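We were asked to recover a plausible sequence for a given structure. The inputs and outputs are reproduced exactly as logged, with field labels preserved.

PROBLEM: sequence recovery
POSITIONS: 265
GIVEN STRUCTURE:
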């Protein structure tokens, strides 16, 4: 097995990474930052998102495992004081993994500028810098509504617990192969109307957000901020690719939700 470690630069994460590297070398587990079989993130969920985007071109060949240096997150199964147990579990040959859906994001532009493609593990959002955003929402190429408001958020099931939840979206179990569209501060009155509720889109369908011409749109894909001129539309669907998490000790999704938002008894 070849392992790569991705960590943030906080003092605790640096210390944990040094200890983990020593344990891996002691147990003759190869470190390979170019073609690993397993990527271990040390930090929080944001660090794991960074690891995902770094290795998103190898999703069919790599699995992920998260070590949290604070409290357990939605993508981290191990704590920083469990490193010896973690390394011992790697020595037991296991090929089992659990996979989660990803969001395919395609940004199209006016003129002859080529499309840009991204994969999101959590969500993608569309906003305008200083004005109300006006956009036509198409589902399977059919106009669904004209949106006016602060913006729109499109999330995966695992990302449903992040920004999506804070704007009133539902929490979806990751076994549901679908994505969710939620409105950010929509404008609803006697003149302008939107559905006003989050909607869940099946993996067989797609959403296209067609924008009014403007150069002040901000597109996010997970923690990435994408500033581009002449954006015409953003196309969303469930990606063909999936992220795989090593299931040496993978925590039940609803346990994570309870631990994050309700706390343990």
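RECOVERED SEQUENCE:
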């Amino acid at each position: 097995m070849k392992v790569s470690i991705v960590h943030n630069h906080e003092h605790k994460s640096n210390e944990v990474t040094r200890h983990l590297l020593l344990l891996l070398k002691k147990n003759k587990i190869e470190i390979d930052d170019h073609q690993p079989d397993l990527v271990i993130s040390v930090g929080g969920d944001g660090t794991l998102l960074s690891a995902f985007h770094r290795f998103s071109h190898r999703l069919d060949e790599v699995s992920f495992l998260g070590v949290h240096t604070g409290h357990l997150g939605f993508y981290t199964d191990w704590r920083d004081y469990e490193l010896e147990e973690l390394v011992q579990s790697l020595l037991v040959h296991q090929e089992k993994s659990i996979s989660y859906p990803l969001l395919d994001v395609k940004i199209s532009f006016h003129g002859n500028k080529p499309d840009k493609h991204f994969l999101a593990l959590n969500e993608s959002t569309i906003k305008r810098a200083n004005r109300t955003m006006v956009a036509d929402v198409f589902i399977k190429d059919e106009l669904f509504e004209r949106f006016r408001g602060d913006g729109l958020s499109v999330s995966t099931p695992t990302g449903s617990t992040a920004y999506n939840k804070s704007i009133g979206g539902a929490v979806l179990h990751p076994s549901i192969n679908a994505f969710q569209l939620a409105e950010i501060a929509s404008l609803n009155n006697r003149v302008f109307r939107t559905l006003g509720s989050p909607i869940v889109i099946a993996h067989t369908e797609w959403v296209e957000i067609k924008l009014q011409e403007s150069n002040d749109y901000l597109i996010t894909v997970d923690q990435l901020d994408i500033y581009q001129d002449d954006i015409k539309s953003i196309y969303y669907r469930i990606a063909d690719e999936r992220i795989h998490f090593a299931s040496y000790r993978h925590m039940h999704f609803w346990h994570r939700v309870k631990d994050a938002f309700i706390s343990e008894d």
